[in-house]
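Suppose you are handed a protein chain with no further information: no name, no annotation, nothing but its sequence. What can you learn? This example shows the usual starting point.
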Amino acid sequence: MMEDKKRIDIMEQKFKEARQVINEVDKEMAQLFVKRMKAVSDIAEYKMANGVPILDAKREREVIEKNAELIDDEIIRGYYTNFIQESMRLSKQYQLYLTEGRRVAFSGIEGAFAHIAASRLFPQAKKVPFGNFKDAYDSVVNGDCDVVVLPIENSAAGEVGQVTDIIFNGSLYINGMVDLAVRHALVAPHGAKLEDIKTVVSHPQALNQCSKFIKQHSMKEISYENTALAAEYVAKLNDPTVAAIASEDSAKKYGLDILADGINESGVNTTRFAVLSRSKSKNVATKHGANFVLMFTVKNEAGSLARALNIIGAHGFNLGTLRSRPMRELLWEYYFYIEAEGNIHSSEGRSMMEELAVCCDKLKSVGSFVRQSI
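A reasonable first move is to predict its three-dimensional structure. Written in structure tokens, the prediction is:
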């Protein structure tokens, strides 16, 4: 028994020492990484000035082979090769950012409301379209894009649950939240007349938001993936009896006439878009009017949710939004999405997180934002 205890004590000591070594190495690696990326910046500047392409496959092979020889252990050498390859991939992405500018992902096509939001937020950046929310989100996770702009809530239709689920299960952080006023228009091929429109095509939410107008004119509804794609479809169809509900931007892009503007039932129809990136910005949290987002699950015990909410209030944070979402993998269990006012990185915020960790099974600080309109 004494020998077993001694052996366990030795293993625990080695475990603690190993963790300390890793912490020290990680700190050194962070500093070396910054140094490496500054050198990459100089290389990007040279390539841009001399018209040299970012990808240099021959140089990459040489670096990988040369660096792999520095490792004697054959097994570790294989992992180190992967490490170097990943470092070079990140270097190329950084060079791409430096030479071409920020890349902003969105779901939809040019003219969609997500594209309008991305264009107003990042007018100089390259906007990159994706076919769905998940692909747009993942493009930032894997480094192909720098930022993603996704709809999170509509004042008329409610939350965009699919996006909330992606954020809950993903690794990106919210660093901005903006309100975009949604103004729907009935758009049709050149020469079409309002009284001749028999069919209207659009996203289900847009159709719902304009239902009163559609009923007044006895139009048949056809659902489409999004409003901009609906406008593109109508333009290609070129049928004077078929119109789309879309934005003014979509009408201009596809050469369509606006037969009626502002047809959405609510004059204050607004969509909130979240701006997400790979890193959490503490600077946002300290600004006046800052809010933060938390997502969490609570233990399956009576009063667990109430305790969590009481902790937030006890630390002086004003709760603004509370929503529940079903967990896909667990039947009849839910996670919670909250927005609250204040600086989560303050001493009160840190204390709050420590207390919440006791009564929450999963606790995730998603980010901070200052709400704005565009």
